[in-house]
Structures are given as structure tokens and as C-alpha cells.
Amino acid sequence: MLYHPGFTRSTLNPLARLALRAPARVATRPVAEAAAPIVALVDEPPAAQLTALDRGRVLDPAFPTLHPAADRLLAVTRSLGYAVTQ
Question: Which of 45, 11, 52 has the alpha carbon at shortest distance from 31?
């Protein structure tokens, strides 16, 4: 499973924190809120053998921002004998 929790409020180095201060005020979520969906996914995993999620939205493994990692992961998964649908 590939899971992207979104922009999460966590500890950053001081320079990164300064650069991200304005966008962070608008887009961040507390760590506990960002982690809650992971707990739900562990309790009830998706039926598909490879699932990519971005803040609750299921993404096609061919989604451009997952490339090239998705292509490589898909190839390895298939080489292990798993049937993967797209």
C-alpha cells in the first residue's frame, strides 16, 4: 500500500520551517489526524494487492506522480507472481 497523508505538522529543521510557515498555516493537519486513516487501513486493508491512496483518494498505480517508483514496484510485484489490475 502506498499512502500519502498530506501535509502533516511535524518537526522540521529551522530553515525548512521558516520557508514553509505560510503554506503550513493553510494546509497542515495534526499528526494524530493524519495518522488516523493509516490505523483504519491496517484494520481493514484494501482488497487490491497494490493500492495507492492520497488523503483517502484511491489513485491509479499509473498516476504520474507515482512514476517511476510505481512502475518499478508494479514490475516487481508482477515478477513475484501477483496479478495486479490497473
Answer: 11
